[in-house]
């Protein structure tokens, strides 16, 4: 079954970046995943449709009210139940609740693959200083960050996570090889890429790529990937080394990296 993604956000229109463009837009159009947006403002019970208030204990900024978020989350869970999903499940495919938060565990491809096992995800996007802590504890929410830099809310992080999830669904990429060969799926950075013309402003394409020798091309690309990973992201190469030692060919390619243009 196509996974189901529900997003609670004060800016549902922002998600058109995801739904209207590129790989993710086409995948959603094809029904490879379902995406539904929920505006907490629709779950307010006061005439001003209030979604935030001042923090207890003082300090700057505002905090998102528990009640509209709680009602929206309860509505999502009710739809999950109607769709036959096991909301209280404990398997890898259980529906999961994710709060995009700077306090969360940092996203990486391993976490994307893990979250990709879920049949349904509820993504909660915060604004202002964040959400009332009680909605997180009431609903057993997991927190996920996209890195150690300050953004203005959870919408862009939610779209980052969704793009990473959607592009790995079978049928999302034109070329099914691409997903498996992606940087970090192989544990290495990508090799350099070239297209026409053969010479651009005096810079030629590496000769090997025009040789037609497919074994030599594959070797060169692996060497570039190994060399770039070693120089730019040594910790990524270390992690791959910890999982499985480099083959003799890989060691030799790494040793002679930089010898050839
Ligand atoms: C200036 C406010 N900060 C006071 C120390 C705290 C703060 C609150 C809310 C910082 C950022 C945000 C909004 N960010 C997110 O909702 C967010 C986020 C991020 O900012 N960086 C990386 N990942 C994420 S996931 C959600």
State the main characteristics.
alpha/beta; Alpha/beta knot; 2 domains; five-stranded parallel sheet; two-stranded antiparallel ribbon; binds ligand 9D3
CATH top level of the largest domain? Answer: Alpha Beta
Shape: elongated
The biggest beta sheet is recorded as: 5 strands, parallel
Instruction: Give me the side-by-side strand order of the main sheet.
Output: 2-1-6-5-7
Derived structural class:
alpha/beta
Order of helices and strands: EHHEEEHEHEHEHHEEHHH
- In CATH, what is the homologous superfamily of the largest domain? SPOUT methyltransferase, trefoil knot domain
Strand content: 5-15%
Mean pLDDT: 96
Label the CATH architecture of the largest domain: 3-Layer(aba) Sandwich
Low-confidence stretches: none
Structure summary, number of beta strands: 9
Ligands in the model, by name, code or SMILES, are:
ligand 9D3
CATH topology of the largest domain: Alpha/beta knot
Distance between termini? 48 Å
- Rounded to the nearest angstrom, the radius of gyration is 23 Å
Tally of helical segments? 10
Count of separate structural domains: 2
Helix content: 25-40%
Structure description:
The protein is an alpha/beta fold and 261 residues long. It folds into two domains: 163 residues, Alpha/beta knot; 74 residues, Trp Operon Repressor, Chain A (Orthogonal Bundle). The chain is 37% helix and 15% strand. The protein is built from ten helices and nine strands. The strands form three sheets. Strands 2-1-6-5-7 form a five-stranded parallel β-sheet. A hairpin with a 2-residue loop joins strand 8 and strand 9. The longest helix has 19 residues. It starts with a strand and ends in a 6-residue tail after the last helix. The model has no long low-confidence stretch (mean pLDDT 96). It binds ligand 9D3. The site of ligand 9D3 has 16 residues, from strand 5. Ligand 9D3 binds next to strand 5.
